[in-house]
Amino acid sequence: MNAFFFKPIYQERIWGGQNLATHLGRTLPAGKKIGESWELVDRPEACSDILSGPGVKESSGLGKEAEGRHNLHTLWQEKRAEIFGTRAPDLARFPILIKLLDAQDNLSVQVHPQSGQSGESKTEMWYFLETTPDAKIYVGLKKGVDRKKFEQAIGTPELPKLLYDLHPQQSDAMFLPSGRVHAIGAGNLILEIQQNSDTTYRIDDWGRVDEKGQPRALHREEALASIRFTDHEPQFVQPHGERVLQCPFFSVERAFIYPGEYRVWTSDQSSFQYHFLAQGELKIDDRTFKRGESWFVPANAESYNLEPLGEGAELITVQWGK
């Protein structure tokens, strides 16, 4: 199978836990609150190492001497069109970041700057892999809330009441263009697809403090300059066929592959395809993929067959926005 497999980068977060192990079978650092797994990233402070792929020897992990020499950034620099496709943008780094988020507590009320503002803009999408019955997300503002009302409520218990809240279910998706105020509530396990950015402006952190009794830094002035105050009561994404979302930065498709249904996956040479198995099991050639596994198919890859196992599979595919 002509595909790359990348080593996840686990990030401890105050709101995280061990659900990536419980639900997705990951091996996590013991006793750590792992809130994020950076599945595909090309940033100065973190870059995805290749575990195996074309031209890279299969291994259970890279040795220290190999780390950094075989990674996503190297591919991006040296084999742009061949691996990423003829539509790959002329940018210094691979422009998409893919994460898993395990929210066992509320994330901060936050916003990402819009294009042209200070910091890196970030448009993103959440795809819900697991949710508890009382899980919430907070997205945009309730109708009638303007900047004045919002600013007056900052730092008070009234602020969350001004945010629009929804109860997600498994396989729901939410689009978050940059400038949309938001927070992920406790009880959500999410696949996040986003622009390659790590700029977040926190407005409120639910009165939370760390193990030393210190609150996390807030960025209220920057946040107020970034929020879209006309963004009221957004709804979940409504897929059109297999297309979940198409935006200028990435496109996302979802395929339900049922028992007895065989698929042939092909490339059109214009884009890579990143696959994430959200539910079920798939067999490709002689390899079986389980829930939570992912693989990166180069634009120049040959076609291959997908065979669902058991009760079938739910497959997410990310590629360039069109």
Count of helix runs = 6
Name the poorly predicted regions: 59-68
Bulk shape: globular
Class by helix and strand content?
A: mainly beta
How far is the first residue's CA from the last residue's CA? 26 Å
* Assembly state of the chains shown: single chain
- Beta-strand percentage range: 35-45%
Give the overall pLDDT as a whole number.
94
How is the main sheet built? Answer: 7 strands, antiparallel
Instruction: Return Rg in Å.
Output: 20 Å
**Roughly what percent helix?**
10-25%
Tell me the series of helices and strands, N- to C-terminal. Answer: EEHEEEEHHEEEEHHEEEEEHEEEEEEE
Description:
By secondary structure, the chain is mainly beta. Helices cover 11% and strands 38% of the residues. It is built from six helices and 22 strands. Strands 16, 17, 18, 19, 20, 21 and 22 form a seven-stranded antiparallel beta sheet that branches. The chain starts with a strand and ends with a strand. The model is unreliable at 59-68 (pLDDT under 50).
Tags for this model:
322 residues, mainly beta, seven-stranded antiparallel β-sheet, six-stranded antiparallel β-sheet, 11% helix, 38% strand
